[in-house]
Amino acid sequence: MNRKFDFENRKYVIGAIAVAIVIVYCFRLLSLQLLSDEYQKNADNNAFLKRVEFPARGVISDRNGKILVYNQSSYDIMVIMNEQKDHIDTLDFCKTVGITKEAYAKRMEDIKDYSKNPNYSRYTQQTFMTQLSERDYSILREKLFKFPGFYIRKRAIRQYNTDWGAHILGDLGEVSAEDLMEDDYYQGGDYIGKTGVERSYETELRGEKGVQIMLRDARGRIKGNYKDGKYDVKPTPGRDIKLTIDEQLQALGERLLEGKIGAIVAIEPATGEVLAMVSAPSYNPKTITGKQRGKNMARLSKNIWHPLLNRTIQGQYPPGSTFKTSQALTFLSEGIVTPNTTFPCVGGFKYKGMKVGCHAHPSHLSLVPATATSCNGYFCWGLYNMISNRNKYATKQEAVNIWRDYMVSMGFGYKLGIDLPGEKRGLIPNAEFYDDAFKGHWNGLTIVSIGIGQGEVNLTPLQIANLGATIANRGYYIVPHVVKEIKDKEIDPMYTERHYTKANRSAYDWVVQGMRSAVVSGTCSSANTAAYAVCGKTGTAQNRGHDHSIFMGFAPMNNPKIAIAVYVENGGFGATFAVPMASVMMEQYLKGQLSEGYEALASTLQHKRIAYDSKNR
Questions:
Q1: Rg over CA atoms, the chain
Q2: Which CA distances in Å does 567 have to 224, 336, 363, 414, 456?
């Protein structure tokens, strides 16, 4: 009886196993046929080859139509892993394309590594090698039949028609894993804008890819377009871009800053268009194209003078006496001073044991001559009186925060929003900053140096130039930008909107008078010319080593065409380097060329060198 029972149990167990096996096979069959596209991919891969067609990237030109960046044909080696055959002569392939067997193996591993190539598929073309020369392409094309799974893809690479403007133009590089994760437009081996305009206008410049569907025979040989190209998609070219930059002015600025560290920014006040944006030291954009890009970029990144740093928007400096113009605007608008208010300055600001030195000039001074002579005493007294004024402001914190609001309205303390990546914001302190720094124990004397552009205040050269443009416009600015036109597309409305400051229009008229007087008979008299009325303000910012040389100004005084800031690290007085450099730049832009005298001055400035201490870099 027990034997019969055991037999019956065994029968049910075996039956259950058989049923389970049938269910598993049925589920697998269902999965392969309905849920998985593996066989479909295999079938499609055997019958079709999808060739990606890259669009022509948009051309970049300067404001006068000169082409600065264009495209040139290049060739990539592509591989479809599913078509790889064991009998490929790897050694012959490596010799043909000029790589080692170890490099071949590593590249194959990288292609299959999902952390480096998230879009990997063994059924689609993957980038094996990029930027073959015409010679290498010709050699490989003759032998390609020997290497199943490998294909040649034509594309374009960037070429530069200028030696200038590397920080503005930017460059292209191979997409990173992060780029691939963020945008499924890209596949491993694609190129993307890495810096400059190439980065900030990547979607406009890149266009849209196309695809050709090619039909294969049973042996994998290409027989032509599938259904005569009925399902092909043509690539859409990228949009051409015209910059606001004047290439001749840019080239001149880079000449002037040779052998120096600093920045020059020139803006058209009425439009906010950046006419020149020079950061020094710089590099030739032609050196970061082709196969040598990686090597040259590594060399530049290790350079102790940081040529990859765009100091025009990433350098954060004390603005020095150029900042006094913003103080005059604030004091006048808040009623702290009138145009006729005078302050003493005998050797500088002296009060309750606090002393801020100043150079020799007459005393007492009102606003216009104080601006012209860059009087430290006047602007220290102005700031001290504002912070200490309890009839107008309930607390010192309220006074500082109102002061801060004026500064922010003038474009300081935050990013202006230029259409380039990497812009820094600088620093404009508020009451909370000082309460934290001094534990509440501070007053107008503690922070008096910010009234002359020292202390905690930091601006970028772009912000200093924008201050000049705002004064030129008598109270408003348009966010500086480097792109003037995009083919068949409007530029962002933010680059046409006026931003008005908190300062009164009448205050600007007085500050303009002061800046004009500074050029006619004050600290920047070397900028004076009979050809047009220049308004300017020098700056000499204190530093660990030699002082920084600074100039901010615009011309002509009425209906201004150019506002400019020049910042030369360790250049000494503003009149030493910054003023003559600005004069040459304004002459070039307003006249279209340099006279013999200005050309001689440009040559002298170009060949002047400043000895920098590498230990402080």
A1: 33
A2: 61, 30, 29, 20, 18
Answer yes or no: pTM beyond 0.85: yes
Q: Is 26 exposed, middle or buried (0-12, 13-18, 19+ CB in 10 A)?
A: exposed
DSSP string, 198-256: HHHTHHHHH-B-EEEEEEE-TTS-EEEEGGGGTT-BPPBPPPPEEES--HHHHHHHHHH
User: Cβ(190)–Cβ(174) under 8 Å?
Assistant: yes
Distance CA 66, CA 455 (A): 43
What is the pLDDT, as a whole number, of residue 56? 92
The answer to whether the beta carbons of residues 210 and 52 sit under 8 Å apart is yes
Angle at which helices 324-334 and 461-472 pack, to 10 degrees? 50
Side chain identity at residue 102, one-letter code: E
572-594 residue pLDDT tens? 999 999 999 999 999 999 999 99
For the chain, how are helix, strand and coil distributed in percent, rounded to 5? 40, 20, 40
Helix or strand run (H / E) with residue 356: strand 354-357
Over residues 243-254, the pLDDT tens digits come to 999 999 999 999
Angstrom distance (rounded) from CA 533 to CA 556: 5
Output 245 or 211, whichever has higher pLDDT.
Answer: 245
DSSP reduced 3-state for 61: strand
* pLDDT given at position 10: 64
List Cα–Cα distances, 39 to 24, 149, 212, 231, 289, in angstroms. 19, 19, 22, 22, 41
CB 348 within 8 A of CB 377: yes
Contact between residue 151 and residue 125 where contact means Cβ atoms under 8 Å apart: yes
